[in-house]
Amino acid sequence: MTAVLNGAAGEVGKQLLLTTHALVGRTLGRRAPLPTSESGLQVLGREISERLEPGQRQAREWALLLGSTTGSPTLSPGAGVPPPPRDFTDRAAVLKQLKHEATRRADGQPRAALLWGPPGIGSSAVALYFAAKHTGLYPDGQFYVDLRDVAGGQLVEPVVVLQRVLREMNVDPDGMPATASGCRDLYRRLTNGRRALLVINHATAAAQVRPLVPNTPELFLLVVASGPPFSLEARRIEVPPLKDRDAKELLRKAAGADTVARAKRQLPGILERCAGNGYALRAAAAQLLAAQEPSAEPPEAPQSSDPVRRTVRAVCAGLPSATVRLCHLVALGGWPVVTSGLAGWAADVSPEEAARMLAEASEAHLIEALGEDRYRFHAEVCRYLAETAGPQLGVATCSAAVSRTLTGLTHRAEHAAHAALPESWRVADAPERGAPYEGEADGLAALVAERANVLRAITVADEYQHIEMCLRLARTLWPLVLKAGYWAEALPALRAAARCADERQPESSTSAALHFQLAHCLGQLRRWEEAEHEARTAVTHERAAGHLLGEASSTEYLGLLSLYQANGQKAAEWFAEAGERYRLLLDEQGESRHLRRALALLERHTGRALWLQGELAASRTHLSSAHDYFEREGEKYNLARTLTDLAETAHTAGDDAEALTHIAQAMRLLPADATPHRHYLTDLRRRCEEMR
Asked: Using CA atoms, how far apart are residues 526 and 530, in angstroms rounded to an integer?
């Protein structure tokens, strides 16, 4: 029952949740929702066990159901750890400490290390070099997650980190657990006894990575923090500044021995200014290669003891003013990923001109090239450029740059959202400006690829008081949370946008839509009480706005929340109320395919609720009505889902022959890539065959 409670959040995971609820109810003769606490589950488990007798149909049902939920997961290697920089130098003492922690006798203590040091010192490079040097220690794979490109600059929550790790371990989105505890349990099962390395880069708090601390000695967790260390059950290893000897060696590797030899007179000043900081030394090497004398900072700049900030000032002094201006304006948003299009919006130049400037800034180490027209600022570099943009360029120029960037991102996100869900009224029509996407797959892929910037843009729009764009951007997240499963990542931005809507557009369709999205995310994460609160708020706001379609849809979702909490009676009541509103719309608007489809889906949901209640004849009536509609309209996937429900109902009634017929029909309708649904039907077929 714990496995079911924490299981996958997709459609099949919820189907298994319902099946378990129904079996609990039939075994106990009453409704008994699954408790969320371990002690509650133990009490319920004992009560069920006491009711079962060997050979009894329900005992066999439980055995077969358990057999379908306890598969052994396997660890699948992902993309691996990125390569270290070619100019990596020394760090022998730090590497020795890492090797000792990775290979020491476990003695009941997890193998984990926290690498830390000031910004730019080279902590990430040490982690990457260690991984590259010791691949033989980890035959089961090396896994890498960089938290800079997660959640659009928001404080990354532990469940998001867990899900990102599981994605790197090739867990299918449909098999991603719904809860944080489920993600943690799956992570531990995947890594149990596996000789693997997990690197988490740019962590900012212990809570983000604490669930990843190994419970098996074969796994080595390596966490990298840019800045002071935090309290974590790991060996803390400081990455100190490079000594002058090693700093010279890094310069030779990065710029070439001949280049460094020609700069012999400047070398003492370079070493003093860089202070053993890896970022500063690489930037100085780039200046030497460009035949420039590295300068600490322009004469008019205030002196600073921070080597990164001193280096940024020096680099900016040697670059064309237009390139420096572009970098200042791009840094204002703190964008997780910078492209030529985004930089062009910020600086009001063409994408081609922006691409040239970004390449120029990358050569000077002012920005990092990620490949394929993608760049990223080092966090401290971005912070300094953003802080100095206003004093150097003026508030009006900075404000206009942010506005242009938000406008460009909004148009792009709206095009992608409309392409991903072309018939959904929950996303806006595609704007006139910007290029459309070819189809649903392209639109969704674009949203997934740009999600960090879109999430960040919602926060930036809120901060800069671009309220309309904040709310428009938040509406574009609907395909991400409906079809791509980024519920936990979207939560902080959606909360900010909903709060903004409540303040500026209270009880409007916009505020209702955002509360509905929040309800969906929280429901998928099985945070039932929070989800119900948001769904009720959505109903209230839709009703106040006079938006009957939104009210009906939000009411329907309240029914689904009740259904997945095993309250079939309440679910059926919500579905009936939603149906009344859909039929009112039909009376007002006339015949509508979308409304007829909504009513057919309600018939299916009602049939499931009645099956949960044990009202099998009524359940079949409603499911058959939904079946007839989807068959008539040629909706193969929804028809397959309804046939699965009919098979469950027939199996519950003891008519396994009829159930097997429905299963065979559903299997023929499902696409080849509907793997989770096919697996569920295979398990259901086995249950039916063994009960005959």
From this structure: 9
Torsion sign (Cα): 243, 246, 247, 248: positive
pLDDT tens per residue, range 150-200: 644 557 888 999 999 999 999 887 778 888 888 999 999 999 999 999 999
Nearest residue to 304 (alpha-carbon basis) of 383, 224, 202: 383
Residues 488 and 179 sit within 8 Å (Cβ to Cβ): no
The mean per-residue pLDDT over the stretch 485-507 comes to 93
Phi first, then psi: give them for residue 589, nearest 5 degrees: -100, -15
Residue whose token pair is 């209640």:
613
Whole-angstrom distance, CA of residue 354 vs CA of residue 370: 16
Token match 């020795």: residue? Answer: 96
Question: Which H or E run contains 487?
Answer: helix 487-504
Q: Is the pLDDT of residue 5 over 80?
A: no
Neighbours of 119 (CB within 10 A): 18
User: Is the confidence at residue 119, as pLDDT, over 70?
Assistant: yes
Length of the chain: 692
For residues 247-270, give the mean pLDDT: 94
Strands of the sheet with 197-201, listed across from one edge:
142-146, 197-201, 220-226, 111-117, 235-238
Q: 32 pLDDT band (50/70/90 cuts)?
A: confident
What are the phi and psi torsion angles at 392 (to 5°)?
-90, -35
CA torsion sign for 7, 11, 12, 18 is positive
Number of Cβ within 10 Å of residue 190's Cβ equals 21
Tell whether the model's pLDDT for residue 34 goes beyond 80.
no
In terms of Cα–Cα distance, which of 5, 4, 3, 58 is closest to 29?
58
Closest residue by Cα to residue 183 from 494, 526, 426: 526
Mean pLDDT of the chain: 91
pLDDT of residue 17: 84
In whole angstroms, what separates CA 355 from the centre of its chain?
Answer: 28
What is the 8-class DSSP label of residue 484?
Answer: I
What are the C-alpha distances in Å from 91 to residues 94, 122, 129, 237, 668?
5, 10, 10, 12, 60
Four-residue CA torsion sign, 51, 56, 58, 64: positive
d(CA 357, CA 366): 11
What is the separation of C-alpha 38 from the centre of its chain, rounded to a whole number of angstroms? 27
In this structure, are residues 649 and 606 in contact, taking their beta carbons and an 8 Å threshold?
no
Q: Give the helix ranges, DSSP H, for 464-592.
A: 467-475, 478-479, 487-504, 509-524, 528-545, 548-564, 568-589
Strands 197-201 and 142-146 come out as parallel
Model pTM score: 0.90
Give dist(CA 241, CA 246) in Å, integer: 10
> Are the beta carbons of 601 and 559 closer than 8 angstroms?
no
Q: Please tell me which of 40-49, 228-237, 299-308 the model is most confident about, judged by mean pLDDT.
A: 228-237
- Go through 36-73 and write b for each residue having 16 or more CB atoms within 10 A of its CB, e for each that does not: eeeeeeeebeeebeeeeeeeeeebebbebbeebeeeeb
What gap in Å lies between CA 373 and CA 337, rounded to an integer? 10
List C-alpha distances in Å: 518 to 477, 495, 532: 11, 7, 10
- Residue whose token pair is 């649904």: 677
The residue type of 374 is R
